[in-house]
Amino acid sequence: MGVDDVGFACAQDYQSPKSYEITKLLPEAKSIIVLAFKPLSSCESPSMSAAQNGYLDLGSFARSASYRISRFLERNYKAKIATMPIAYPFEIHNDRKALADFSQRHAAVAAGLGSFGRHNLVIHPQFGTRVIFTSIITNLTLQPSPKCEDFCTQCNLCVENCPARALDEAGKTDIRKCLGHSQPYGLIADITFQLQQLGRSPEEQKQMLMDEQYARLRQAAHLGNQYMCFNCLKSCPIGLA
Description:
By secondary structure, the chain is of the alpha+beta class. It is 37% helix and 12% strand. The protein folds into 2 domains: 5-152, no CATH class; 184-223. Strand 4 (115-116) and strand 5 (122-123) form a beta hairpin.
C-alpha cells in the first residue's frame, strides 16, 4: 500500500478542541486508524513548483491508499468507515472560519504517531515533521497504540524562521498570518483581486486578466490548497539524521 507507518486510537482519545465531535463524522465510531506517509525529497526543493508537485502527488497517493484500506475493511470485516481527507473538503460556516471538520494532527498524536512541537505540527519519531497523515474512522474495536514521548527540543528555530510571525504565541498558530503568507494565491487573494476589478474600465480589467497574478490565482483555484512556504517544516531539525 505504500504506508510508511500506522497507529490506532480509541475514538474517545481523539481530543481536538476546535473540530467536530467524532460521532458527527461517524455515529458508530469506536476507533481511528491513522496512516503516515513520508514525502519524497522533492518536497523540499528550492523550486516551489517542484515542492508543490511533490505534495500534490503525495496527497493523491495517500488518499488512494486510505481508500483501498477502507474498501478492504468494509468488504472483509463488514466495517463501517469514514475516511478523513488531508485538508479539503470541509464544511464552511462563518463561525468556524477556516477550521477543518477533523484534525489529522490530533488523531496522529492520539494514535501514537508523534507529539506536538513548538510549531504545532506533529513530530514523528522517525520522520520528524516531514510526514503527512490520513485517517480512517471505523466502528471496529482496535487495540490502541502506545502514546509517544515529547520529541520537541524547544530550539525555537521554527519560530525564528517564520516570515509571517504566525508562531509567536506558544501553543497557537495565527491562521490569518500563516495563510496570508503561505497561500498568497488562496481565497482571500482571489476575493481581493475580484474586488479590485470593480469600477475599473474595460481596458484596465483586460490588463488585470493578462497579469501573472491572475494566472497564478487561476492555477491555485484549479489545484487547490497551494502552499508556498514550508519554513516551519523545513527548519525543524528532528528526523534529519
